[in-house]
């Protein structure tokens, strides 16, 4: 029996190693843990930080809906999703997904699914802070992200 | 009814949330967006391309054809860029 997905929306940083331990400590039946860690990326020294705005209440509710669907699609033994908000400096952590399962395929696929849907459905918006101290613009959504979500077939409950 | 705005929709309108009393003829998300556009230049600017605006009712994504009867909270925002 898989525990309920552990979902946190927080301003503070997270420790990916500690979050994996949350899934695996005291258990001997888990054969695979896949983690995805999303970082604040600078390109060409232009960016000092990203400001992440979110919709409190809906952010957790929407991520929970996505996590529950992942848990219904794949035989997972645990799932952690952490998404940060507020100012995040270049190089800092933004998001963590960790999926645990008996065999690797379910964990790989569930982690990819979670990220594809988080990008297009979780209510977060990134704004750039430039290295020269000026406010950059809002980051625009990409068609590549929509296409990544679209590769997953509609879900039919078992 | 409570309206919430996020990211550049919030900036262009100039507030993050407000309570509104809707006229009787406003029954769908699409009609709500049309009505809001007529409330001032800031609304018209924020909602100039209504097809680009994403909408959630009571914390769930909805299409613009969705009825709004019974909604406690409606949020308008740009396409999401988290993750």
Structure commentary:
With 158 residues, chain A is of the alpha+beta class. Chain A has one domain (6-150): Aldehyde Oxidoreductase, domain 3, CATH 3.90.1170. Chain A is 32% helix and 34% strand. In chain A, helix 2 (58-73) runs antiparallel to helix 3 (104-121) and helix 3 (104-121) crosses helix 4. The two termini of chain A are 17 Å apart. The model of chain A has no long low-confidence stretch (mean pLDDT 94). Chain B has one domain (2-77): Beta-grasp domain (Ubiquitin-like (UB roll)), CATH 3.10.20.30. Chain B is 27% helix and 23% strand. Chain B contains three helices and five strands; from the N terminus they run E-H-E-H-H-E-E-E. Chain B has a five-stranded mixed beta sheet. In chain B, a hairpin with a 2-residue loop joins strand 3 and strand 4. Chain B is globular. The model of chain B has no long low-confidence stretch (mean pLDDT 97). The chains are: A alpha+beta (158), B alpha+beta (83). The interface between A and B is medium-sized, with 27 and 16 residues.
Structure summary, number of beta strands of chain A:
8
What's the Cα radius of gyration of chain B? 12 Å
The main β sheet of chain B shows up as:
5 strands, mixed
Q: CATH architecture of chain A, please?
A: Alpha-Beta Complex
By CATH's scheme, which homologous superfamily of chain A applies? Molybdopterin biosynthesis MoaE subunit
* Residue windows where pLDDT falls under 50 for at least 5 positions of chain A: none
Structural class of chain A: alpha+beta
Largest beta sheet: strand ordering of chain A: 1-4-6-2
Report the portion of residues of chain B in β strands.
15-25%
CATH first level of chain B: Alpha Beta
Main beta sheet of chain A: strand number and arrangement? 4 strands, mixed
* Average of per-residue pLDDT values of chain B: 97
**Can you tell me the CATH topology of chain B?**
Ubiquitin-like (UB roll)
Terminal Cα span of chain B: 30 Å
Which percent range fits the helix content of chain A?
25-40%
């Amino acid at each position: 029996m898989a525990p309920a997905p552990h979902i946190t929306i927080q301003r503070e940083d997270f420790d990916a190693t500690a979050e994996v331990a949350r899934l695996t400590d005291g258990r001997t039946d888990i054969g695979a843990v896949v983690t995805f860690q999303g970082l604040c990326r600078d390109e060409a020294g232009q960016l000092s930080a990203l400001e992440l705005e979110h919709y409190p209440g809906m952010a957790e509710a929407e991520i929970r809906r996505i996590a529950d669907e992942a848990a219904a699609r794949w035989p997972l033994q645990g799932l952690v999703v952490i998404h940060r908000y507020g100012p995040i400096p270049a190089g800092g952590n933004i998001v963590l997904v960790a999926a645990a399962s008996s065999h690797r395929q379910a964990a790989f696929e569930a982690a990819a699914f979670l990220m594809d849907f988080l990008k297009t459905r979780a209510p977060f918006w990134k704004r750039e802070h430039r290295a020269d101290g000026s406010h950059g613009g809002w980051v625009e959504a990409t068609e590549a992200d929509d296409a990544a979500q679209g590769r997953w077939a509609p879900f039919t409950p078992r | 009814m409570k309206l919430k705005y996020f990211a550049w929709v919030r900036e262009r309108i100039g507030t993050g949330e407000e309570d509104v009393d809707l006229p009787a003829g406003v029954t769908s998300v699409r009609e709500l967006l049309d009505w809001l556009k007529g409330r001032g230049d800031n609304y018209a600017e924020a909602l100039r391309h209504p097809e680009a605006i994403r909408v959630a009712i009571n914390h769930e994504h909805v299409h613009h054809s969705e009825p709004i009867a019974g909604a406690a909270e409606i949020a308008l925002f740009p396409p999401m860029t988290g993750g």
